[in-house]
Specification:
With about 400 residues, this protein is mainly alpha-helical. It has helices spanning about 5-40, 70-80, 90-105, 135-140, 145-155, 160-190, 195-205, 220-225, 225-240, 255, 265-290, 310-335, 345-370, 375-400; strands at about 50, 60, 115-120, 120-125. Helix content is about 65%, strand content about 5%. Mean pLDDT is about 80; it is low at about 405-410.
């Protein structure tokens, strides 16, 4: 039995769960503070520590800018009454929150969050599970979360949660197609499904969308930025739809569905839905960072100047990875508080009329671009024609999306 490997794996699981759950709480305070800045109002800036219940004369407000607010939220969810209505289908009603939270946590296990570390003469990868099919594993497990939301709406035996569950089922399945197709050009470029190898390539040859060192400075590499940029746009937008966040939060929009699929939930069962949304946002940001922006790589050739396997180098790379993920989480928050909600018909048209076709065409464009060094004339003409077809398709789709519909305006 490999004792150092088992110890390292146990430590990675503990750190991964601890950091992910802590990051969820941090994202909550980020959301509130950031939205307050955007709306020019005062956000959470203090939370009293209730020392009076311990016999002290008064509570204490720590001057740390409201960072105790997530702890107060967690305590509130734990202490609230855990009420289950009599008319719900209880087994599925209790199963649904778990089906939402668990997939979001499990998918994070295959993402490398730091460079390999040498422990006891052994190189240990900084990923809980270093799989050779990382992206496929993420999509397979993440797709299970749709069952949690759908079961929550169906098992509640109430019309508004049911509408939210049906909307979520249609929305998430639709955008999973575009999400999967958008990643195909990336896998064609890297020629591997191992996320660790994908990051190592970017360490030596430039980040996927920032090829400024190594072999990334070649003309052919710059030419490939066209299909890779399209993949980034489709992939990032589809992640928004998969996480049910604005402007794609139709399954839980308060103005139409009271609260959506989790209307009948309270206490920790509601908290699991709440935490699952933020956990999905974090794994989405981590996947974007890993595929397009070098993962834990510092960039600009600096990683190759550091000693391989040193513990402090791995810690430095973990810090770089968390910084990038934080920036993308802030981007998620910025979009939520900036762009208005789509109509449902616009949401589905965007997924099926625009992204599905554009992602398919982008796969062909990527194939032609990869063939460019061998068949430059044929691949160049074919790529130009496909790009023109894509532009025409988007214009047609735009006219369809702007067409008045009986569902009303935003």
């Amino acid at each position: 039995m490999d004792i150092p490997f088992l110890i390292a794996t146990a430590i990675k699981i503990g750190v991964f769960l601890g950091v992910t759950l802590t990051f969820v709480s941090v994202c909550v305070i980020f959301e509130r503070r950031f939205s307050a800045i955007i709306q020019d109002r005062v956000g959470p800036n203090r939370t009293m520590i209730p020392l009076s219940i311990l016999g002290f004369k008064k509570d204490v407000a720590l001057p740390i800018g409201g960072l105790t607010q997530p702890m107060a939220d967690g305590l509130k969810f734990i202490l609230k009454e855990d009420f289950t209505p009599d008319y719900v289908r209880k087994f599925f009603f209790w199963l649904a929150p778990c089906m939402t939270m668990v997939p979001a946590l499990v998918t994070m296990a295959v993402v490398p969050f730091g460079s390999p570390m040498e422990i006891g003469g052994q190189i240990i990868p900084m990923a809980v599970a270093d799989l050779n099919v990382g992206p496929l594993f993420i999509f397979a497990i993440a797709s299970l979360s749709v069952y949690g939301i759908t079961l929550a709406g169906w098992s509640s035996n109430s019309k508004y949660p049911f509408f939210g569950g049906v909307r979520s089922c249609a929305q998430m399945i639709s955008y999973e197609i575009a999400l999967g197709l958008s990643i195909v050009p990336i896998l064609m470029f890297f020629e591997t499904l191992n996320l660790g190898h994908i990051i190592e390539y970017q360490v030596n040859n430039g980040w996927l969308l920032l090829p400024l060192w190594g072999e990334g400075l070649s003309f052919h590499r710059v030419l490939l930025m066209i299909p890779l940029g399209i993949s980034f746009f489709i992939f990032t937008t589809s992640i928004f739809a998969e996480t049910n966040r604005m402007p794609f939060d139709l399954p839980e929009c308060e103005t139409e569905l009271v609260g959506g699929y989790h209307t009948e939930y309270s206490s920790m069962k509601f908290a699991l839905f709440f935490l699952g949304e933020y956990a999905a946002m974090i794994i989405g940001s981590a996947l974007i960072v890993t595929l397009f922006f070098g993962g834990w790589s510092i960039g600009f050739g600096l990683d190759n100047l550091l000693p391989i396997g040193a513990w402090w180098v791995s810690l430095l790379h973990i810090g770089v990875f968390l910084t990038k993920v934080t920036l993308f989480c802030l981007f998620f928050i910025l979009v939520r508080w900036t762009i208005p909600r789509f109509r449902y018909d616009q949401l589905m048209n965007l997924g099926w009329i625009v992204f599905f076709e554009a992602a398919l065409i982008n796969v062909i464009i990527m194939a032609l671009m990869l063939a460019y060094p061998y068949q430059p004339v044929a691949s160049g003409i074919g790529a130009v024609l496909l790009i023109i077809a894509t532009v025409v398709l988007i214009k047609i789709a735009k006219s369809v999306l702007q067409k008045p519909n009986a569902l009303g305006s935003v």
